[in-house]
Specification:
By secondary structure, this protein is mainly alpha-helical. It has 17 helices and no strands.
Length: 477
């Protein structure tokens, strides 16, 4: 591919490809939820076992992100991106064609591993193609918009797709997009310069296995109890595996993860914020949609339409956000966005009753969506600031692992808290009604989430300093 084609690609379709990849991954993270009852009925899952459809994807994705990002650094980001997109399209097709529960769960693992190759390489392709400052802020703003739109798009589209075309359609929807991107990527993304090609196999296995165990533990805790062996054993095993990991890396001549990267206060703090951002994206929006459907009786389509304006407004915010962040600086951007998101979550919680006006509820969602977008964008910028070009995939993988851990931890713990609260209220006052007990459960969970997010904002304000920009070499893949 000639230099002119490369520049044109990044100016137009190359950038669109990276944003589309993030959109598709986030779409898949949320679109399956509505289809679970139909999947359970047709493929013979048990009531609790059907959650494996979600857990399998999240575990494979969370476990593979650091490895996916580093493999892209070492073997060429364009190559890994194309392999990941082709694998994602193929595994999505196989999910739709699944004949039984075992086949579907196995295909979801493949789908998650493919997404783990795509997500950090797409982010690294952006960060190495735009220098730190206004240009990267603009690109990351678009990346953040794609993240939010993808997740909300899954919530909006899942109901109509399942109702009209069946549960298979939520998987088929991503097949043509993935296939097209795999074909177009070599044309619009420049090839990588040669790199060293020795992979730290033991380190790769340890970090992938350790993170996967920690990701799966909250889901098992929510389903089987937080003191059950199904939760405690993978959590302890995951922590033990990750405790061994640094010692292995110190002895390896070419470690998978350069441990000195974690000396950066900016990177560490940005990943704490990314964890909170994942909790908001996963648990926050899920609690809102459950409240709309189970308490207020909205259909999946209507609930999606109430949430959809958040995505539309974020399209507009994405055009002004880079200038705002450049003007006030990264530290104030992160702390302001995170604390605003937490305060707005608390306001949303006050509206979660069985009788309050849904118009007001929908209006309060709009500024929350804007604050969450700003949190996602600013924390991603911070997590990749000051990182050398040949480690951008690794930094992106670490950041997205934090985000994915936030989703897994938030959904499992906050839904469990809501369920416990609901059960306790129904036992104490049966006359109050199931809807009001449900609303109180969801309300408590959002209050807890709001407190966690506000605390994260305080931590960011105390710990963050404005990062010193590091020059990024020519775009690589």
């Amino acid at each position: 591919m000639n230099q002119r084609a490369s520049q044109e690609g990044w100016g137009a379709l190359g950038l669109v490809l990276m944003l589309s990849a993030q959109f598709v991954i986030m779409l898949d993270a949320s679109i399956v939820t509505v289809a679970l009852p139909d999947i359970q009925r047709e493929l013979g899952f048990s009531a609790s076992g059907v959650q494996a459809v979600v857990t399998a994807y999240n575990t494979a994705l969370g476990g593979g992100l650091i490895l996916g990002g580093r493999v892209g650094d070492l073997f060429g980001r364009r190559r890994i991106f194309v392999i990941g997109m082709a694998g994602f399209a193929a595994s999505s097709l196989l999910c739709g064609l699944a004949l039984n529960a075992v086949m579907l769960v196995a295909c979801r693992v493949l789908q998650g591993l493919s997404a783990a190759a795509i997500a950090p390489t797409a982010l690294a392709l952006l960060t190495t193609s735009f220098p730190e400052g206004p240009a990267r802020a603009k690109a990351m703003s678009k990346f953040g918009v794609a993240t939010v739109l993808g997740f909300i798009g899954g919530l909006v589209l899942s109901g109509p797709l399942v109702d009209s075309l069946g549960w298979q359609s939520v998987f088929y929807a991503t097949v043509p997009v993935g296939a097209i991107m795999a074909v177009l990527a070599p044309r619009f993304i420049a090839p990588a310069a040669p790199r060293r090609r020795r992979l730290d196999v033991l380190g790769a296995g340890l970090v992938t296995f350790g993170v996967a165990l920690i990701v799966v533990a909250p889901a098992q805790g929510s389903a089987n109890g937080w003191t059950s062996p199904q939760c405690v054993l993978p959590l302890v095993a995951g922590i033990a595996v990750l405790a061994i990991f640094p010692a292995v890396e110190r002895r390896h001549p070419e470690p998978l993860v350069r441990l000195g990267l974690f000396r950066s206060r900016t990177l560490r703090t940005a990943n704490v914020v990314s964890l909170a951002s994942g909790m908001m994206s996963g648990a926050g929006y899920l609690l809102v949609t459950l409240y709309l459907q189970e308490v207020r009786g909205c259909s999946p389509v209507r609930a999606g339409l109430i949430v959809a304006p958040v995505g539309v407004l974020n399209l507009a915010l994405g055009t002004v956000l880079p200038r705002l962040m450049t003007r006030i600086g990264l530290r104030l951007s992160i702390t302001g966005a995170t604390m605003s998101a937490g305060l707005l979550l608390a306001v949303i919680s006050t509206q979660m009753t069985a009788s309050k006006n849904l118009v007001v509820f929908g209006l309060v969602l709009l500024p929350f969506g804007m604050a969450m977008l700003a949190t996602t964008v600013s924390s991603t910028l911070a997590a990749t600031s000051g990182v050398a070009g040949d480690e951008q995939g690794l930094a992106g993988g670490i950041r997205q692992t934090s985000f994915q851990l936030g989703i897994a931890l938030g959904v499992a713990t906050l839904l469990s808290l809501a369920g416990t609260r609901t059960t306790a209220l129904e036992a104490a006052n049966p006359a109050a009604g199931h809807a009001q007990a449900l609303a109180s459960g969801y309300q408590l969970s959002l209050y807890v989430l709001a407190g966690l997010v506000i605390t994260t904002g305080v931590i960011a304000f105390v710990r963050l300093r404005e990062p010193t920009p590091t020059p990024v070499p020519a775009p690589s893949s």
